[in-house]
Design brief:
Keywords: DNA-binding, Transcription, Transcription regulation. It is built from eight helices and twelve strands. By secondary structure, the chain is of the alpha+beta class.
Length: about 230
C-alpha cells in the first residue's frame, strides 16, 4: 500500500517514511460488500481498521432492533481504536455502507510496534482523546438539544469537515444521505427534511439534492443553543 495513504490516517500522520514503512509491513486488507457487517458489538476486539475506499458506519442497536448510528467513516478514516490498548470487546458494530476496501492491523502486531516507538504511541493517544471528546459531545447533544439544534450542530460540523467557501457561502457536497443524517441526529428522515426546509425558507441555507450551501453562517450558529 502506498505510504501516502498511510499518511492520511490520523494516528500515523506526522511519522517519518521509515516509521510508516514499519507499519506498512503489518497491514492486511479485506473487501466488504455493501451491507456486510465487519464486526458486531461484543465481538472480541482484535484489530484497528482504516478505510482505503468506501464508507463504513459505526452503530449500536437497542433490544427492539432500532439502530443508532454513532459515526460514518470514509476513506482515510480510522475506527475501532477503542480496543487498541486495553483489548476487550468492540463497543459498537461496524457495517459497510457501500462496497469498501478496509485495511486492518492486528492489535498484537501494533502493540508490539508502538511499545518500541514513543512517537506512534503518543499519536494514538491523541486520536483516542479526540474521539472521546466527540463521543461526549454527541451524548450531550442527544440529551440536551432539540432536533433543530442537533441538525444545526451536524450541519456546522459537516461544513467544518467537508465544506469550502465560495462567493455564495459555504458549499458542501453532502457525504451522507438524508437517512444517514437522521440517524446521526437521532430522529427520522422526515424530521430532518422538515428542519432543512425550514432553514432554507428562513434564508440560512440553500439546497440542491446532495448539495447544501450555508448562506448565513452566523444565523446557523444562532440556531445552536449554548449548553
Amino acid at each position: 500500500m502506498d505510504l501516502d495513504i498511510l499518511k492520511k490516517i490520523p494516528i500515523f500522520s506526522g511519522l517519518s517514511n521509515e516509521e510508516l514503512g514499519k507499519i506498512k509491513e503489518l497491514v492486511q486488507a479485506a473487501r466488504y460488500r455493501k451491507g456486510v457487517v465487519i464486526f458486531q458489538e461484543g465481538d472480541p476486539g482484535e484489530a484497528v481498521y482504516f478505510i482505503k475506499s468506501g464508507k463504513i458506519k459505526i452503530y449500536k442497536s437497542d433490544e427492539e432492533g432500532r439502530e443508532y448510528i454513532l459515526h460514518i467513516f470514509q476513506e482515510g478514516d480510522v475506527f475501532a481504536e477503542a480496543v487498541l490498548l486495553g483489548g476487550g470487546s468492540y463497543p459498537a458494530s461496524a457495517e459497510a455502507v457501500e462496497d469498501s476496501v478496509v485495511g486492518f492491523i492486528k492489535n498484537c502486531d501494533l502493540e508490539k510496534l508502538i511499545s518500541q516507538n514513543l512517537q506512534i504511541s503518543l499519536k494514538i493517544i491523541k486520536v483516542m482523546a479526540g474521539r472521546l471528546r466527540e463521543a461526549q459531545e454527541q451524548i450531550k447533544n442527544l440529551a440536551f438539544r432539540d432536533t433543530y439544534d442537533r441538525t444545526a450542530c451536524l450541519l456546522h460540523k459537516i461544513c467544518l469537515d467537508y465544506g469550502h467557501r465560495t462567493t455564495n457561502g459555504i458549499e458542501v457536497d453532502l457525504p451522507f444521505t438524508r437517512q444517514e443524517m437522521a440517524a446521526l441526529v437521532g430522529t427520522s428522515r422526515e424530521t430532518v427534511t422538515r428542519v432543512l426546509s425550514d432553514m432554507k425558507k428562513n434564508g440560512i441555507i440553500d439546497m440542491d439534492r446532495q448539495k447544501i450551501i450555508v448562506l448565513n453562517e452566523k444565523r446557523l450558529m444562532r440556531c445552536i443553543r449554548q449548553l
